[in-house]
């Protein structure tokens, strides 16, 4: 047998022999509806391409597929097909569909499309043995994903408040990018450099500060589950390796664990920051107590350098991967092995957990990203990324994946593993990639030390981030120049704000005067109306008194007549005096009646005059109201103009305050 025509897959060794391809006849509608079974449809395909090497007499890799039972048994490393109706999880399908390596048939194109369709339909139909078989209920694909809400801290997400500004190492250009991290909840990006970690704002690309990493170069940057801490693993090759923990708000290093004799390639913390795991060239996964640095577990499963370490988001599991393609999942609380995942054919460079902790992604030199189901303990998807070794992979909160590859490319895949975006190529191999908390931006770096921040919506527009920031003195000069520019911009804005305030004050005073005039006009009308009412009431009261007064005058008039008749012709002084008194009293009553009549008529005349005056005064109210409305409108316009002027001024003033804060921090760093 020509061994050059053979490729063995993993330990179960699925091997397909090359053979002339025979195209199946197109199926009509009736045929499409019939069951696809092993006996009738699949075994003929295997006979044409596979059975020379995978039969009961010659079980290459421990795999025979010439009978249904043997096929279900799988090979030396386990099953190759499952009855869950998911072709993507089938190792057989991954190889014959060229989704993974080594592709089958070896050194040959894919088998005929019609045969692939038949094979896929068979798997989707539940891998039936014959026409009498019944498919099991199809399981839900583990790729179906609903993002959990746990992990997000209450209140505003953690962002730096005061960070160091001194640049420990100043270089003309950055070295190859070794690590990039993105906060899970805030617009914050960390980029590793020489003895330093630069923190950038994930939306504005502003350099927020520099964390010193005096031990060497950080090889990994991972944020804690709540985003409050940054875990940096690194050191110096063949000298020292540690994992350092920084508080995001202050930039203070709050913990440091490990004292490795060689560099640390990756480090991570569990969900409650109680444990830190790290790995590197010493081939051992070490788990420490994060509070006191005590070594809890020293796990020795790996046979080559450990490249990647990551705790599951729920803290139950911890995964580690190595240069030989090893990928192991451990119980975080006990250190016992949980899964040994062996499908990769090259170094596993990067791993990332999905938010629900059910799926682990691994990126390998074999050119694939594999998605592993923790419940089933198998690969449910193998993504042939394309372009050679895959150097980095990261999940976002939506279950999307961002990858970096040696072909200079960074790619974005949806939760089902389908490529949705390919970003502009970099100058050299892309080494690191991360996606921001809101999935709106991707940041990635390459071998030349270039780091780009780009939006997912518009990938060609990229903003560079320096892994080697300029020294504090140079940045101080830039800040001072910016301050001078801001002062120039602020002066006319301050003048405009003052002018707007003066106009507002004038408008408010005019409104106050108009409102006072309106109130006075209303008060005058009300006063005149009150006078009219009082006068009419007075006239009414006087009129009501007249009948009584007239009646009294009549009685008195009768009394006068009686007195006169009683006087007769005699001259009696007493009687004459009595008549005179009665006549005087009558005269007085008549005078009072006449005066009362005059007072009533005068009150009516005055009331009519007040009514006329009130009408005239009321006519002045509407113009006063209109003037008030006009003044209010003028105050509204003046208020808007002032607020706009104030906002424009305050925005620049806030910028000036921020720049002044930076100046002070940079000046302190320079000193």
Features:
Methylamine Dehydrogenase, Chain H; 4-stranded antiparallel beta sheet; elongated; alpha+beta; 671 residues
Provide a descriptive summary of the structure in words:
The chain has 671 residues and is of the alpha+beta class. It has 3 domains: 3-124, no CATH class; 180-470, Methylamine Dehydrogenase, Chain H (7 Propeller), CATH 2.130.10.10; 477-655, Helix Hairpins (Orthogonal Bundle), CATH 1.10.287. Helix content is 35%, strand content 25%. A 6-stranded antiparallel sheet has the order 1-2-3-4-5-6, with no helix packed on it. A 4-stranded antiparallel sheet has the order 7-8-9-10, with no helix packed on it. Strands 11-12-13-14 form a 4-stranded antiparallel sheet, with no helix packed on it. A hairpin with a 5-residue loop joins β23 and β24. The longest helix has 96 residues, at 472-567. The protein is elongated, with a radius of gyration of 48 Å. Residues 1-32 have low confidence and may be disordered. Residues 1-24 form the signal peptide. WD repeats lie at residues 299-340, 341-382. Keywords: Coiled coil, Repeat, Signal, WD repeat.
Major sheet size, sense and barrel closure: 6 strands, antiparallel
Low-confidence blocks of residues: 1-32
Kindly state the percentage of residues in helix: 25-40%
Number of strands: 26
Overall tally of structural domains: 3
User: How much of the sequence is in beta strands?
Assistant: 15-25%
Question: What is the gyration radius calculated from CA atoms?
Answer: 48 Å
CATH T-level fold name of the largest domain? Methylamine Dehydrogenase, Chain H
Number of distinct helices: 8
Q: Give the class-level CATH name of the largest domain.
A: Mainly Beta
Structural class: alpha+beta
**Strand line-up in the sheet with most strands:** 1-2-3-4-5-6
**Shape by Cα distribution:** elongated
């Amino acid at each position: 047998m020509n061994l050059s025509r053979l490729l063995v897959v993993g330990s179960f060794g699925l091997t397909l022999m090359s053979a002339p391809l025979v195209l199946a006849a197109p199926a009509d509608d009736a045929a499409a509806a019939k069951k696809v079974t092993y006996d009738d449809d699949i075994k003929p395909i295997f006979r044409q391409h596979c059975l020379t090497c995978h039969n009961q007499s010659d079980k290459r890799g421990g795999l025979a597929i010439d009978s249904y039972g043997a096929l279900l048994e799988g090979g030396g490393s386990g099953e190759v097909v499952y009855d869950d109706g998911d072709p993507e999880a089938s190792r057989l399908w991954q190889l014959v569909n060229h989704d993974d390596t080594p592709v089958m048939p070896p050194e040959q194109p894919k088998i005929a499309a019609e045969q692939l369709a038949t094979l896929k339909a068979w798997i989707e139909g539940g891998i039936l043995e014959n026409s009498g078989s019944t498919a099991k209920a199809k399981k839900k694909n583990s790729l179906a994903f609903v993002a959990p809400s746990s992990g997000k801290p209450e209140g505003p997400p953690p962002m730096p408040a005061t960070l160091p500004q001194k640049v420990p190492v100043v270089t003309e250009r950055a070295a190859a990018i070794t690590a990039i991290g993105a906060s899970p909840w805030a617009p914050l990006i960390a980029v590793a450099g020489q003895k330093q970690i630069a923190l950038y704002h994930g939306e504005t690309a502003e350099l927020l500060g520099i964390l010193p990493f005096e031990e060497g170069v950080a090889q990994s940057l991972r944020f804690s589950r709540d985003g409050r801490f940054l875990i940096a693993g690194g050191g110096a090759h063949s000298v020292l390796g540690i994992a350092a923990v920084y508080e995001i708000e202050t930039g203070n290093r709050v913990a440091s664990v490990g004292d490795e004799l060689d560099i640390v390639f990756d480090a991570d913390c569990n969900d409650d920051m109680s444990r830190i795991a790290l790995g590197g060239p010493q081939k051992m996964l070490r788990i420490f107590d994060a509070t006191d640095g005590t070594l809890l577990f020293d796990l020795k499963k790996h046979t080559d350098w450990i490249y990647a370490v990551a705790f599951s988001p729920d803290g139950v599991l911890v995964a580690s991967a190595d240069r030989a393609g090893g990928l192991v999942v451990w119980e975080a609380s006990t250190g016992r092995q949980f899964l040994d995942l062996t499908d990769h054919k090259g170094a596993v460079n990067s791993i990332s957990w999905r938010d629900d902790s059910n799926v682990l992604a691994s990126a390998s030199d074999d050119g694939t990203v594999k998605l592993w189901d923790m419940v089933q303990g198998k690969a449910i998807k193998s993504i042939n990324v394309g372009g050679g070794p895959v150097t980095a992979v990261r999940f976002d909160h939506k279950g999307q994946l961002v990858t970096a590859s040696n072909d200079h490319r960074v790619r974005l895949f949806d939760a089902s593993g389908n490529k949705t975006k390919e970003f502009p190529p970099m100058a050299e191999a892309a080494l690191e990639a991360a996606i921001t908390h809101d999935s709106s931006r991707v940041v990635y770096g390459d071998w030349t030390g270039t780091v780009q921040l780009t939006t997912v919506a518009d990938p060609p527009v990229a903003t560079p981030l320096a892994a080697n920031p300029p020294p504090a003195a140079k940045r101080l000069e830039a800040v001072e120049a910016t301050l001078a520019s801001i002062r120039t911009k602020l002066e006319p804005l301050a003048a405009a704000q003052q002018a707007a305030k003066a106009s507002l004050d004038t408008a408010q005073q005019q409104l106050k005067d108009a409102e006072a005039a309106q109130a006075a006009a209303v008060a005058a009308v009300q006063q005149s109306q009150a006078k009219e009412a009082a006068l009419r009431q007075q006239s009414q009261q006087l009129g009501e008194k007249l009948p009584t007064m007239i009646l009294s005058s009549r009685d008195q008039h009768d009394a006068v007549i009686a007195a006169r008749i009683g006087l007769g012709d005699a001259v009696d002084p007493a009687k004459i005096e009595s008549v005179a008194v009665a006549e005087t009293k009558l005269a007085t009553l008549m005078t009072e009646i006449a005066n009362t009549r005059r007072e009533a008529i005068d009150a009516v005349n005055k009331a009519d005059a007040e009514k006329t005056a009130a009408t005239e005064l009321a006519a002045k109210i509407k113009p006063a109201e209109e003037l008030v409305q006009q003044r209010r409108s003028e105050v509204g316009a003046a208020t808007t103009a002032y607020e706009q002027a104030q906002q424009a001024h305050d925005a620049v003033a806030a910028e000036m305050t921020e720049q002044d804060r930076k100046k002070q921090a940079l000046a302190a760093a320079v000193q």
